[in-house]
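FAQ: What does the model actually see?

It sees only this:
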Amino acid sequence: MPHHREGPTKSKQTGYYYFDQYVGFGQDRCRVRISLGTKDPARAQWLWEQEYKRRWSDHYGLKTHKVAAPIKFSDAIKEFIAYERDVKRVSEWKTFEKRLEIVSRIWGNVRISDIGREHIAALDKALREKRGVSPYTINHYFGLLKTFFYWAIGQEKHSGPNPMKEVKPYVVDRRRRSFTPEEIRKIIAAAEKIETLPRARDITLYANRLVKLLLYSGMRFGEAVNLRWENVHEDKIALKRTETKQRKEKVIPITAGIRAVLDTIPRGTQTDFVFPFRRRASGRVYQKWILEKIREHSGVKDFEFHGLRHTAATLMVSEAQGRGVGLADIMKVLGHSRVETTLRYLHEDDARMRRAVEIVEEKFSGKKKR
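And it is asked to produce this:
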């Protein structure tokens, strides 16, 4: 194969890139000019390289890898969701399906091989301006599409490279705060009141017990709502890899408080879930309704269920350490894969920081602070 190369040519009229090269030697030398079907310079360069190799390999009589026929994005997502159904929880792959359908409506009847920077920019603008999607959720769309294109490349439905690889996500500050003891008392009182409201049903009948379980165990909302009795043993709650966010087994010791909560929930015969919601698919609607009621009755206007986990994690990291509890133990209970995630709950405290310095001083000065 010759060493001399050039690169894709951009049309001044349309903005699309072309493969415009001479292939062959002597009498067999001919000019090949075909459209690369993209306005993205990075993708055009990659497609040009593939076409260059293919043309010269064919000229020398070598076998070349054949890329699958172009496939529509709307058709590809059906196969992708069918694949995800085998490896993801129902709530996850249904979310993937819903979001990819939204992307498909925005992009229209486009082939996945034609998707480039202009499509990604159009998607970003449509989500922000027309649908009012937050930057945090847009990052999730981008991450999902990145996974989708890697799957498509692996299935030889896309020749590569991944068009989402160079997309930079939004910088989002989603700091969650822990609640004070006084706020926790108000939240629990509000949850108790919700259970007695005339319209209480399904998830609202267990509002107080759900709040306490989240607070005492540090579980995520989805883990608690989808908890099954088969996960509850004599002295621990054991979650499987498919039941946790980090895809790792998770064990939570059952304390007296957790046991008291579980003992108040009867084991029914109609469902094996700890919280026997009749319409489990409507959980998000009930969750929003409970949030509004707890905020209303407690006065904690920024209450979120994840704040209960954040409160539990903060207490574990800030208070439990030094009482025979190691950071590794806390990581296992919370289900964290990285120590940096756990240490984020160690909020700065002037008194604690001063005590840390004083301990070193006492060790070497021989003087103990009174």
